[in-house]
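User: Just a sanity check before I run the rest of the batch. Below are the structure tokens for the first item. I only need the designed sequence back.
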């Protein structure tokens, strides 16, 4: 398990999946804000069912997020789009509603950066988020991410086009920020 100051990132367990599906996938409004594909109901044993893990998929590493204190499941996090040639990857995370606003998201970003930069030897991490996602923007910036641009009207979210913000962090910037 990878450890931050408040959260642990561990492998997805079978009994995490129904909880993540009920609290994240089945929340249509949240799904629309987080995923680039339209929501649809998906049968639990379908090949591409949400939160199901394919351990052979090299470029996409899914984690379950747990509280360090007690091990309660609090969300899902992913290092995705891992590109070993250009040595970059993207961060994605979604916390269960009851776990939001407690500093866990900021800590998840920190742990994913450690995984990307130290364990995987990457050079760049990216985050794309909706321009109105204040908590995600803040969690990224607290970890040293820099706003690199706005993708205007790039996301169709429940009946309207919204802007997205692209943020990036390079390994030397991340190291410079370490105590
Ligand atoms: C976005 C998300 C991961 C952030 O994690 P979190 O644990 O809620 O955020 P944190 O508690 O670490 O807060 C980060 C910062 O944002 C602020 N913040 C938290 N919730 C906020 C809100 N609703 N509005 C404005 N600011 C907020 C916090 O005060 C904190 O700022 P600070 O460091 O200056 O004190 C989480 O809210 C979530 O899973 N949301 C739903 C899914 C989602 O949007 N995922 C991201 C897709 S890119």
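Assistant: Here's the designed sequence for the first item:
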């Amino acid at each position: 398990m990878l450890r931050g100051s408040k959260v642990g990132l561990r492998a997805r367990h079978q009994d995490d999946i129904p909880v993540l599906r009920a609290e994240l996938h089945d929340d249509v409004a949240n799904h629309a804000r987080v995923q680039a594909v339209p929501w649809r109901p998906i049968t639990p044993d379908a090949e591409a069912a949400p939160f199901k893990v394919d351990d052979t998929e090299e470029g996409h590493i899914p984690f379950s997020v747990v509280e360090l204190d007690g091990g309660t499941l609090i969300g899902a996090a992913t290092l995705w789009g891992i590109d070993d040639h250009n040595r970059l990857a993207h961060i994605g995370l979604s916390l269960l509603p009851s776990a939001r606003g407690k500093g866990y998201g900021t800590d998840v970003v920190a742990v994913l950066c450690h995984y990307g930069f130290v364990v995987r030897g990457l050079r760049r991490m990216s985050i794309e988020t909706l321009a109105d996602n204040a908590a995600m923007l803040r969690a990224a910036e607290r970890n040293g991410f820099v706003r690199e641009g706005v993708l205007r009207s790039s996301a169709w979210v429940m009946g309207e086009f919204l802007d997205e913000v692209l943020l990036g962090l390079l390994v030397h910037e991340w190291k410079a920020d370490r105590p």
